[in-house]
């Protein structure tokens, strides 16, 4: 898109992360033409390139379980279809390491709740199961767990993990082959509206006339919404940190994502080493800065206090991991909403739609979110879930969706 050139698009997606890639691919698969993706840097250069890559169906509420169940189904099908193509797809989709998620529970109240969560998951078709501490030790002896205080565990064998950045690039590559135009290094400067309707998007590479814009800009979604005069989109950043360490001998080759629910500490294989994470509570000042969208809230510098917390947590449950040698560490940003559910669908500005606010679950939840949006665009409603419940208006009306955090 040359600077100053006149160009049109039927649908313009702002954001080249997982949501933008899945949406572009599904639109093209459904036969939609003149789909354009605008990415201010490069595809998968934002939060998805810094994510853990987990694909789990073990959630504590029905909406999250349904989103994740359908997301996992989508990725398995996408990988299979790309592998079956006569000409190898480029870039190829990454493997999905379907080794499961293992949640270790040590609190009586949490164990009682977990039994209810697993029952709900099973009712929704997720093959999760409850395990005793001895069953955990027998199935994964290499974990060398301290089990004295364990009440039990939940495990789902169809959960797992993948490379989220590689998956995003593979999806965008497939979308391109189906006719989607993707412009990188193309920040959006303004969105032109007339009488409350989207008319065009002004970028660093020229102006794009378009009647539909999808805001898939992740942690920057609230700032993008301001371009059309929406100043109350409650999407804000939350920093998380990941640590890649040297491998530990004796751990299972098919290591599940292991989660100590009491602390949130979790780990899995990655690049021949161990990827570790520990959710940490931001300070009140950090929370206020995030809600206010201050510049510091988007800072990716590491908090030096998190690694010592991990070093204290590890020996209490995983003595075999003590003394890990750190390779590298990095920070990423979740795009949070007040109820930790996404913002999907139309807004008061006609032609400006949202697909953001996935609260750390974007990789898992983007496929169904894209399906709901496309159904809405084609028929005015969505069949699997009512898209209306995810609208921006729920925050204005104080009708937040119920949510229970498992991790």
UniProtKB/TrEMBL annotation:
Query: Cross-referenced InterPro entries, in alphabetical order?
Result: FAD-dep_OxRdtase, FAD/NAD-bd_sf
Q: What single Pfam family name could you report for this chain, choosing any that match? A: DAO
Q: Which GO terms describe its cellular component?
A: cytoplasm
Question: Which Gene3D superfamilies has this protein been placed in?
Answer: D-Amino Acid Oxidase, subunit A, domain 2, FAD/NAD(P)-binding domain
Q: Which UniProt keywords apply?
A: Membrane, Oxidoreductase, Transmembrane, Transmembrane helix
Question: Which residue numbers delimit the FAD dependent oxidoreductase domain?
Answer: 11-375
Question: Which is an annotated GO molecular function term of this record?
Answer: oxidoreductase activity
Q: Which domain of life is it from?
A: Bacteria
Provide the transmembrane region boundaries: 6-25
Q: State the PANTHER family in the record.
A: FAD-DEPENDENT OXIDOREDUCTASE DOMAIN-CONTAINING PROTEIN 1, SARCOSINE DEHYDROGENASE-RELATED
Know the name of this protein? Answer: FAD-dependent oxidoreductase
């Amino acid at each position: 898109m040359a600077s100053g050139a006149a160009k049109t698009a039927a649908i313009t997606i702002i954001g080249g992360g997982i949501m933008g890639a899945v949406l572009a691919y599904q639109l093209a698969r459904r036969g939609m033409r003149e789909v354009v993706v605008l990415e201010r840097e490069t595809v998968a250069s934002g939060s998805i390139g810094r994510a853990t890559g987990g694909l789990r169906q073990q959630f504590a509420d029905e909406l999250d379980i349904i989103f994740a169940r359908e997301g996992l189904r989508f990725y398995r099908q996408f990988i299979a279809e790309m592998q079956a193509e006569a000409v190898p797809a480029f870039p190829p989709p990454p493997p999905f390491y379907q080794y499961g998620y293992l949640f270790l529970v040590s609190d009586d109240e949490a164990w009682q709740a977990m039994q209810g969560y697993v029952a709900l998951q099973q009712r929704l078709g997720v093959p999760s199961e409850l395990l005793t501490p001895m069953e955990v030790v027998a199935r994964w002896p290499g974990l060398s767990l301290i089990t004295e205080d364990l009440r039990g565990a939940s495990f789902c064998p169809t959960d797992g993990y993948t490379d989220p950045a590689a998956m995003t690039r593979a999806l965008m590559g497939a979308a391109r082959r189906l006719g989607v135009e993707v412009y990188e290094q193309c920040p959006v400067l303004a969105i032109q509206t007339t009488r409350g309707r989207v008319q065009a998007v002004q970028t660093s590479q020229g102006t794009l006339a378009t009647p539909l814009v999808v805001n898939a800009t992740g942690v920057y979604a609230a700032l993008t919404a301001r371009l059309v005069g929406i100043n109350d989109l409650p999407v804000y950043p939350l920093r998380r940190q990941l640590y890649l360490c040297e491998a530990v001998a004796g751990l299972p080759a098919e290591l599940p994502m292991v989660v100590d629910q009491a602390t949130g500490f979790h780990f899995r294989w990655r690049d021949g080493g161990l990827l570790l994470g520990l959710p940490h509570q931001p300070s009140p000042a950090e929370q206020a800065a995030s809600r206010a969208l201050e510049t510091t809230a988007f800072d990716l510098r590491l908090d030096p206090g998190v690694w010592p917390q991990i070093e204290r947590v590890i020996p209490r449950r995983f003595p075999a991991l003590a003394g890990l040698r750190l390779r590298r560490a990095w920070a990423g940003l979740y795009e949070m909403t007040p109820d930790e559910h996404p913002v999907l669908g139309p807004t008061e500005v006609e032609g400006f739609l949202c697909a953001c606010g996935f609260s750390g679950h974007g990789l898992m939840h983007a496929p169904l979110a894209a399906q709901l949006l496309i159904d809405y665009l084609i028929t005015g409603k969505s069949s699997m879930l009512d898209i209306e419940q995810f609208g921006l208006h729920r925050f204005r009306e104080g009708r937040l969706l119920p949510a229970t955090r498992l991790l």
